[in-house]
Amino acid sequence: MDKIIAWLKSLNDKVLHFAASFAVEIVLAVALPMWLPWARFSANVIIIGGGKELYDYLHSDEHEASFTDLLADAAGALCGEIVIALLR
């Protein structure tokens, strides 16, 4: 039962990473329309997502850095760019 609870907490964390990156990507597309999509995507994933994971790594007593969190950030940002492309 403990493994199931841990897995669900991890899944919830990934959904939060995905949703946050999706929202940031939409905001970046509206605020910086002159930037190319790959530049917005890179800024979101590397600076914001990577910065969050670096923070987690440096504060490992309270947080846990995870490569899968960064993948969830990238997936959310990519989906945000796809939605923006479909709406234009």
Task: Describe this protein's structure.
There is one protein chain. This protein has 88 residues and is mostly helical. The chain has one domain. 83% of the residues lie in helices and 0% in strands. α1 packs across α2 (37-58) and α2 (37-58) runs antiparallel to α3. It is flat. 23% of the residues are buried. The model has no long low-confidence stretch (mean pLDDT 91).
Pattern of helices and strands: HHH
SS field, number of helical segments: 3
What is the total tally of β strands?
0
Low-confidence spans: pLDDT under 50, at least 5 residues? Answer: none
Helix residue percentage: over 70%
- The chain-level structural class is mainly alpha
Report the end-to-end length measured between terminal Cα atoms.
Answer: 46 Å
Number of domains: 1
State mean pLDDT (0 to 100 scale): 91
Q: Work out the strand percent.
A: under 5%
- The rounded Rg comes to 14 Å
Shape label? flat
Reported for the largest beta sheet, the result is: none
